[in-house]
Design a protein that fits this description.
Layout (H helix, E strand, L loop, with lengths): L2 H28 L3 H24 L6 H30 L2 H26 L9 E4 L5 E3 L16 E3 L1
Antiparallel strand pairs: 1-2, 1-3
Helix pairs in contact: 1-2, 3-4
């Protein structure tokens, strides 16, 4: 295997470990194990450092305009090609919970593509507003959280500001 292939495999593994460890940290905290939660978060941060090194080595980090264009392409692929098939497969399997999760993700990824496109159009005039993320489904809103999430219906109070 080439170094480039190994970098791609390592990037995928480190990225998945980061997300998994953050989920483990959340569960450890819910279970009252704060030290385990801290260790999972620390390890997740280390995995992020590794993933960033591999992204750099692969030449995947470009200027902001190019990064926005890549993000638009990735999000568009997810909501137009990837998730529709996942929704159909979950429905065919009779897995309603996965179907709902995929449907939510599809709508959220479309919203992300639109937000990236909007920012790309006004990048040099961006005003420093905030983004708000639904902590249930991931819906992302610009400037203010909606009274209720348009995807999963959760209340405004559970949005996180960025």
């Amino acid at each position: 295997m080439s170094t480039e292939e190994n970098l791609k495999i390592a990037l995928a593994g480190e990225s998945q470990a980061n997300r998994t460890y953050l989920a483990f940290a959340k569960k450890a905290e819910e279970d009252g194990h704060t030290q385990a939660a801290k260790l999972f978060r620390a390890a997740a941060d280390a995995e992020t450092i590794h993933a960033m090194m591999y992204l750099e080595r692969l030449g995947r980090i470009k200027d902001t305009t190019e990064n926005l264009k890549e993000a638009i392409g990735g999000e568009t692929h997810e909501y137009t090609e990837m998730y529709p098939g996942f929704v159909d497969a979950a429905a065919a399997d009779g897995d309603g919970e996965s179907k709902l999760a995929f449907r939510w993700a599809l709508r959220v990824e479309e919203g992300h593509a639109n937000l990236y496109s909007s920012l790309l159009d006004k990048l040099d005039k961006a005003d420093g507003g905030s983004y708000f993320v639904c902590q249930t489904c991931g819906w992302t809103a610009e400037d203010m959280a909606p009274d209720g999430c348009p995807v999963c219906g959760r209340p405004k109070e559970q949005f996180k500001e960025f």
